[in-house]
Amino acid sequence: MRIYKSIPKRLLALCLVFATGIGLGCLSDHFISENSRFQAFTDELFQSEVSNNTLTLHYTLANPSKKGIKKPEATLGTVLSDSDKTTNICQKYEKKLQSFAYSKLSKENQLTCDLLLLYFHTRVSLGKNSILDEPLGPSLGVQAQLPVLLAEYSFYKKEDISDYLKLLSTIKPYFQSILKLENQKSQAGLFMSNTTLDRILKQCRSFIADPDSNYMDDIFTQKLKAFSNPALTDKDQKKLCTYHHKLICEEVIPAYQELINGLEKLRGTGKSSRGLAFFEGGREYYIYLLRSQTGTYVPVKRIEQRLSSQLLSDYQQIRSLLQKDPDLISGLSRYVNELTLSPEQMLNALPKLMTEDFPTLSDVTYEIRSVHPSMKSFLSPAFYLTPPVDTQKPNVIYINDSGRTTSLELFGTLAHEGFPGHLYQTVSFARSNPSDIRYLVASSGYVEGWATYVESYGYEYAASLMKNSAAAKSAVRLAWLNRSMNLCIYSLIDIGIHYRGWDAARTAAFLKAFGITNASTANEIYQYIVETPGNYLKYYWGYLNFLDLKTSSQKKLGDDFNLKEFHRKILEIGPVQFPVLEKYMK
Q1: Which of 372, 363, 425, 437 is nearest to 402 (CA)?
Q2: What is the DSSP letter of 498?
Q3: What H or E segment, with its residue span, contains residue 383?
Q4: Quick check: helix, strand or coil at residue 24?
Q5: Pairwise CA distance, residues 216 & 253, whole Å
Q6: Burial track 504-541 (b if 16+ CB lie within 10 A, e otherwise)
Q7: Across-strand partners of 398?
């Protein structure tokens, strides 16, 4: 998982843009003028969107003033929006993009134009279905993510400390906007089920359970001690910590309690746990999610067919491995925990192991930090926190040493988060000096799909570090195929629940066909996917797109195919929707 910020026409015209060639044109006054005009538009768009709320601005830019951006008053913004107004704005942006002489733009600007056109065209398609957006959730909801984002709010100068403290006082009005939305959803018959509500309330109550021992206080104290611009005296630190604790007790915890109380009042107004397919406009909204989050524009049926074929392929490969070595499964436990490297040693080894497959990226600095003990139970085994655009550092990977994973899984996770995953891809893209707007408008399907795609290489690299690498290779391959099948099964269930209308019983029957017979496990899988529509597809469908791009390039180029060059091209294009990626890969 990469933590990063992104900003939440006609079809014929769009197709014409995509069909246009990507030649650079001649270097004339008109050429320069058109590129300058386009760059001015994207710069203005970036400045407008990045300033919408303080978290987005701070996580994107360490020094906004150097970009000519004046910091607004500290705020978290609001989740409420006027769908008609948003649609009109996106249509205006789309029309503006179509006004540029596409053939006169540089290749880089053509790519950005394609990306933005498709982004705004997709956003317009949401329309009234925006009421189906759900900001809350037991694991990925804003009430769960907000404390992490606030805790990791970097202090570059004293002003940042002041802004952070002001933000704590804006949580209450932000949550009030969420409650207003949830009331609207309730009145429209779209409120969450009691099961989901209970899971959200449990997470909120856990966060505020002990006001005198809140992890945000501990992390704030640590950050003040490390702050050096200028250094704070012990007296100043103590004063700030006292004030911070007061804000936690008088602003943050009451805001969460008000959210709890407001949601509790809506209990019973939702329906039993079910996917988007059961709601009016639900299937259309799900297709919107696939396009906006996953970056795919192929029909759902075609996605199902591709997932099914990959599931069969993985199964056949597993069967072949077991036919050659029937003892592979019984010996698997030895290999998955054979690596005795620390996370730091794993991250240090990966850049060397990947040199034959991926372009070299020199002088990359990063920090490894441990997740705060109080956060271990609900955070991933590791995650990457993207740096601000204007500093491109620090690159931070957080390690959750809760002991929930094997050493092989941790190695694969660090390949996903670090090299050649999120950290490597982010730094590679930044060094190509892209337009600022591309940091805000990016495809999650590309980002998470790439990290999942390279995770498979991480498993291979892990096998090469084991004592009996030849035997380990088959065992580790089996482990990866098992992970691939699980992700594929969950992706099919995602479509089944949210597009086909599967209920819990139908989902359990599907899981049973793959040996998952425990009722509690099946119910937990069902409930998680109900609450996070499209999430698994960002990872797995994205992975399959990169896999298929590689296969098609290998068939086309034959002996001339170069894996490192293939990866270089993908990294050079950067995080875009898959139709755009395929166009520029050609």
Answers
A1: 372
A2: I
A3: strand 382-385
A4: coil
A5: 11
A6: beebbebbeeeeeeeeeebbebbbbbbbbbbbbbbbbb
A7: 369, 383
CB-neighbour burial class of residue 228 (10 A; exposed 0-12, middle 13-18, buried 19+)? exposed
Helix, strand, coil percentages, rounded to 5, for the chain: 65, 5, 30
Residue 236, token pair as written in the block: 């100043």
Q: What token pair was written down for 564? A: 């490192």
Contact present, 454 and 416 (Cβ < 8 Å):
yes
CB-count exposure of residue 154 (10 Å: 0-12, 13-18, 19+): middle
Q: How far apart are CA 415 and CA 460, in angstroms?
A: 11
What are the extents of the domains in the chain? Answer: 2-132, 142-191+194-269
Nearest-CA neighbor of 122 among 339, 284, 5? 284
What tens digit of pLDDT does each residue of 158-187 get? 999 999 999 999 999 999 999 999 999 999
Token pair listed for 475: 């065992």
Selection from 194, 152, 116 nearest residue 5 by Cα: 152
114 Cβ neighbours under 8 A, 6+ residues apart: 17, 18, 576, 580, 583
Buried b (16+ CB within 10 A) or exposed e, 378-408: bbbbbbbbbbbbeeeeebbbbbbeeeebbbb
Contact between 97 and 120 under an 8 Å Cβ cutoff? The reply is yes
- Mind listing the pLDDT tens digit for each residue in 220-236? 999 999 998 888 999 99
